[in-house]
Amino acid sequence: MDNSSYNIPYPSIDQVGVAERAARLMSRSIKKEAKIFALKLALNMVDLTTLAGDDTPGKVRQLCYKAAHLHDALPGLPHVAAVCVYPNFVRIAKEAVKGTDIQVASVATAFPSGHSSRQVKIDDVKYAVDEGADEVDMVISRGRFLQGHYDFVQEEIAAVKEACGHAHLKVILETGELVTLDNIRLASDLAMDAGADFIKTSTGKIQPASTPSFTLVMLEAIRDYYYRTGRMVGMKPAGGIRTAKQAIQYLVLVRETLGEPWLSNKYFRFGASSLANDILMQLVKQETGVYQSLDYFSND
Q1: Residue 71: φ, ψ to 5°
Q2: Which one of 49, 77, 110, 171 is at 20 to 30 Å from 203 when CA atoms are compared?
Q3: Domain limits of the chain?
Q4: What's the topology of domain 15-296?
Q5: Over its length of 300 residues, how does the chain's per-residue pLDDT go in tens digits?
Q6: What's the rounded Cα separation, in Å, for the pair 83 and 155?
Q7: Is the peptide bond before 78 cis (omega within 30 degrees of 0)?
Q8: Which residues are catalytic?
Q9: What is the DSSP string of the chain?
């Protein structure tokens, strides 16, 4: 296939400038009252995830129980946004979160490598949706993208979006494999033009995954796409965000780049299961004045 004719609608990304802007925005501090609000907001944006080879129905049910009962000893906590599982566990997860507003997400399209035929990927998506998935997380064909086959990548995303039907589509760029910020920006634009409801940094399997610079480039792409089309697209940094402090810094990044309408789990998520426990520890500290040990919180 010849290189794509897809046009890059933006100037080259200034790597130093992006790093400086991200560092400046993420260095801001907030006061206690705002901090508690931000912690609860971030908790409500977490996607609890289990994507391991040793996943079992019991492990998935435990994850779903935690999603709905984060820390019953502390009243007034929100739920997480979603649980994310492989397609064969979607039906189990759907049953386990029944009666809540917790979404069930499923990875698809030969996650995490993306190496398979388009038909296999489409079948994977349709199976997940038929099992009850509210959201589908797809991976782009990074090899094709790095070869310059941009039309192929965009057409594949559009085909997956069509296969999703009512389910929302999160498109994983795998930023750690895209090499440059220019590529991250271009992949973001391709995904949104193809119909992505969310763009997501990483599978969590490749490092670096989510960084402030990667995230800022993607947020700016979302901003420019909104100015161009009027359609709001969500963002999900995934991988490497483990502390409540980091989560709040990312919320500042979103607020200053996109504005308050994006400060909702409808448009922003964290793909970091371990983050939930650190946020819970910080909320307990704000409530009681003392830290609890991680032993008081389940890993799943």
Answers
A1: -165, 85
A2: 77
A3: 15-296
A4: TIM Barrel (3.20.20)
A5: 445 666 656 668 989 999 999 999 888 877 777 889 999 999 999 999 999 999 999 999 999 999 999 987 788 899 999 999 999 999 999 999 999 999 999 999 999 999 999 999 999 999 999 999 999 999 999 999 999 999 999 999 999 999 999 999 999 999 999 999 999 999 999 999 999 999 999 998 888 889 999 999 999 999 999 999 999 999 999 988 999 999 999 999 999 999 999 999 999 999 877 899 999 999 888 777 666 655 455 555
A6: 28
A7: no
A8: 137, 200, 236
A9: -PPP-----SPPP-HHHHHHHHHHHTT----HHHHHHHHHHHHTTBEEE---TT--HHHHHHHHHHHH-S-TTSTTPPPPSEEEE-GGGHHHHHHHTTTS--EEEEE-SSTTT--S-HHHHHHHHHHHHHTT-SEEEEE--HHHHHTT-HHHHHHHHHHHHHHHTTSEEEEE--GGGS-SHHHHHHHHHHHHHTT-SEEE---SSSSS-S-HHHHHHHHHHHHHHHHHH----EEE-BSS--SHHHHHHHHHHHHHHT-GGG-STTTB-BB-HHHHHHHHHHHHHHHHSSPPPGGGS---
